[in-house]
Amino acid sequence: MGPLHGLKVIELGGQGPGPFGAMFLADLGAEVIRIDRPAEVGKAAGDPVLRRGRRSVAVDLKHPRGVAVAKALIDRTDVLIEGYRPGVTERLGLGPDVFTTSNPRLVYARMTGWGQDGPLARVAGHDVNYSALAGVIGAIGRPGTGPVIPINLIADFGGGGMLLAVGVLAALHSRAHTGKGQVVDVAMVDGAAALLGSFYAAAAMGLWTEPGTNPLDGGAYFYDTYETADGGHVAFGAIEPQFHRAMLETLGLDPADFAGQEDRTRWPARKKQIADVVRRRTRDEWVARFDGVDACFSPVLTLAEVPRHPHHVARGGFVEIDGLVQPAPAPRFGGTPAARPAGVAPTGGATRQVLAEHGFADADIEQLLASGAIGATPRKDSL
Fold it and tell me: 126 catalytic, yes or no?
């Protein structure tokens, strides 16, 4: 059932990092109920991975009776996840102070780009903006090409949703000792900066210079990707001397010609030399040649190829849910393994069931439906 079995989470429906954090908790066994808008009932449920593993309740948070329903659900949960701009839940009547007395153990996790305060707190933004201001985008690129956007992995997911999950678990640990919940202010710009921490230190010490000229950003010939004869690519991370030697020998190059591995002035010429060699064979030919060689070598796989790789297959790294192959829950637990995630529930599919579980009578539920405060799928679709 997963290590978080028994944990109850309410997620106020949003996009990107909030749903990723909620998915992460659900994957590990938490019971996550997502509050969606009644207007979304009957529509496609959105991202089939980020929305997996939880039930959906449709509640109009702009309707007074809808707010009362949401409050009743939150009063009986352990964790609330919300991803609105600062002040929105307060205006809705669902801010943290509302639950100080009714649910003092509540962990109130707030997911934003800029944080709950500061001059940018209420300014719109996306991953690219948070990553830019944290220095991530400015640190990635090749000489002469300008900054490179590392898709929205850094701020949205690593520095956002994953940081939210860590913050929630830390607050729950604190609650186990104090008996009190707390607000967790998760800002993507903070998380992105934290992920870049060691590079700030390297830059301050003069060890990190122009993007694309450093040891870990493709500047080094032994830590880069190279194009193969068939247009594919392979990746090397041969930093340590034994891996460096194995890489060169397997490429058919003399390690003696590559003495002075850390001499950056030699990197461009050596990179061209290795590129010329790698381009003589296809990607799969290099895979076969490096098979069994400890040289920190890997093929660069496409998204379609990844789930079929023997390593992922052997570990069960991907699962098929509702016809879609997607990453399995991670990390792995020896004593409380996570269950296979459920697919995406229909929006509003669990409205009646969840409200009944929280003490609402059938007649009350029907009145709420009639008033528009809540929405639900037809009974045959309910979960």
Answer: yes
